[in-house]
Design a protein that fits this description.
Helix 1 runs antiparallel to helix 2, helix 2 crosses helix 3 and helix 6 packs across helix 7. By secondary structure, the chain is of the alpha/beta class. 45% of the residues lie in helices and 19% in strands. It has one domain.
């Protein structure tokens, strides 16, 4: 058995309870076998295991931490949107998860659900610094510093080559819409090596935390960049077949992820981004939009 500290997860579960209550008050009921329902179940299962201070060694840590990160972020944005203009759009998008039926949130294809949730997270993130945020082609449309921006959101599944092909589809989406600039956003949370965020002491059979918060952040950023590089290698090869002039609206690819960090005995949900310019864009600094997005994304589920 592996002994793990349980602090902070109780606060996350409290938010999940409020999230479910909020959905119910709007006649949205989560089916336990839906993707969302399974994440909620996993989050509660984790808390029970933490309260017993022991987790079986064969427990699927990666999937569990992935679910915890996802449901924490979704709960946070739903509760954070209550009473705000974005709330109506958010509820409409959540209703789309159940194909327009009144209730409940039924089991659905993995990609459909994940893409919808990703659009919710990204749309809410944009509301923290941009204006006129709406769910529209390519996926999210907004205004920032006098320019219109489009985001094509993709959830990462499959091989690097498959994901690279999805970024190509995102570029095509952006080229078809009337925006000044845009980028393809790829969520790597499902592929991120969550288990590498911990130090496992095999002699004592315990998971220990890092003592320096900056070290946790550096580790996360390095792992995200490493995860993105295998996709970038495939994407660069794939994009060589296309005329760079056709991509003039698209600034680059923004890889994002959330994970569970472990700092001085306290677990916390962490978010980060890794931006890659398209090969035809010559730039020496980050876009202000990306800088703002990164800051808002980091604070999405666990404000510092």
């Amino acid at each position: 058995m592996t002994h793990i500290d349980k602090r902070s997860f109780q606060e996350i579960l409290a938010n999940v309870d409020k999230f479910e209550a909020y959905l119910s008050s709007n006649d949205i009921h989560v089916h336990p076998q839906s993707g969302l329902g399974k994440q909620i179940t996993t989050a509660r299962e984790l808390l029970n295991l933490f309260e017993s201070q022991a987790i079986p060694n064969n427990y699927p840590h990666h999937d569990a931490m992935n679910s915890m990160a996802n449901i924490s972020c979704l709960s946070a944005i739903v509760l954070g949107s209550k009473g705000k203009p974005f709330e109506k759009q958010l509820l409409s998008k959540i209703l789309a998860l159940k194909s327009g039926s009144a209730a409940p949130l039924m089991p659905h294809s993995r990609s459909q659900a994940d893409d919808t949730v990703l659009e919710l997270l990204c749309g809410y993130t944009c509301t923290q610094f941009a204006e006129d945020v709406i769910f529209d082609e390519p996926d999210i449309y907004c205004s920032f510093e006098g320019e219109t921006w489009g985001l094509a959101c993709k959830s990462a599944y499959g091989t690097p080559k498959t994901i690279a092909a999805a970024t190509r589809d995102g570029v095509k989406q952006l080229n078809k819409v009337n925006v000044d600039k845009g980028f393809v956003l790829v969520d790597l949370t499902n592929l991120f090596p969550h288990e590498e965020m911990y130090h496992y002491n095999r002699n004592a059979d315990i998971i220990t935390s890092l003592h320096n918060k900056r070290s946790v952040r550096t580790l996360f950023n390095d792992l995200l960049h490493y995860t993105a590089q295998s996709i970038e290698a495939e994407r660069v090869q794939l994009f060589r077949r296309y005329d760079p002039e056709k991509h003039w609206r698209v600034r680059g690819i923004l890889y994002v992820a959330h994970t569970v960090g472990y700092f001085r005995g306290t677990r916390m949900i962490m978010g980060s981004t890794d931006f890659q310019w398209l090969s035809n864009i010559k730039a020496n600094s980050e876009l202000p939009f990306v800088v703002e997005f990164n800051s808002a994304w980091q604070k999405l589920a666990w404000p510092e």
